[in-house]
Specification:
Length: 314
Amino acid sequence: MVKRNKRIFKINKEWYKYYLKFIEDNPDKEWNWQGISSNPNITIEIINDNPDKPWNWSCISSNPNITWEIIKGNPDKHNPDKHWNWWFISRNPNITWKNIKDNPDKSWRWDWSCISSNPNITWEIIKANPDKPWVWEYISKNPNITWEIIRDNPDEDWDWCSISMNPNITWDIIHDNPDKPWGWYWISMNKNITMEIIKANPYKPWNWWNISINPNITWEIIRDNPNNSWHWSAISMNPNITMDIIRDNPDKRWDWGYMSMNPFTKEKELFINRKSREHMAAYKIQEWCLQIIVSPHYKIGRTMIDRKYKELFE
């Protein structure tokens, strides 16, 4: 388990370097350093090791690799060039309810709209703290808010546009509740919406910008349906787009500003799988080498045994 964790840690470090190299290999592109600063493929080590880059500390504040410990260890007063943005910190997925409770001196800094949508905020926390300035528009899209919670609490000030993008809202829920004021702009980007659903319901007011960024939309779907109203800025953010796809299709209208925000989820998955196989192959070769070195069934093993015997007894 320890070896496996070390291998995963090493591969992740290799991935972060690989991602940064992709940016550095394309210096002529119109990168958006705000998007890069918040990108989950950027770590505090990369930021510290590249002080010449035009990092945006407001956006770094929301980066999921930035932990509460990092924030505490880099207070503004010690780093006048590093201005944490508490609006972004409040939405950072590493910020817990305990962090918020234990830092009442930051009460004037916390942003309750962002806290309301923070994935560490549960329905139980919201109900147990009615004195807090919760923002229902943001609670409505919180991934801890389920359809059952919404259905069983009809008197709350729910926002149906935000509910429409909530990852707990499925097509069956939408289909079975046609009386609700669904926001189709937001439904179009909901991760539960597939191309099959879109094709089966052509008369719904789908939004093709948000369809273009939907994580269920793959490159194959885009490539095989060229007559759809794709938006290339949104496609540039689509997590299924890989660096090879970008390189192999230079004629496409890639938007490098939006691409700066692309988490490259598919690319990372492919990279980790490839590197895992390489590491495993190297490990097996190493194990095999160690075995034959000490085995009398192989010439190299017999030679090594004879050498060790002479060292001990001659």
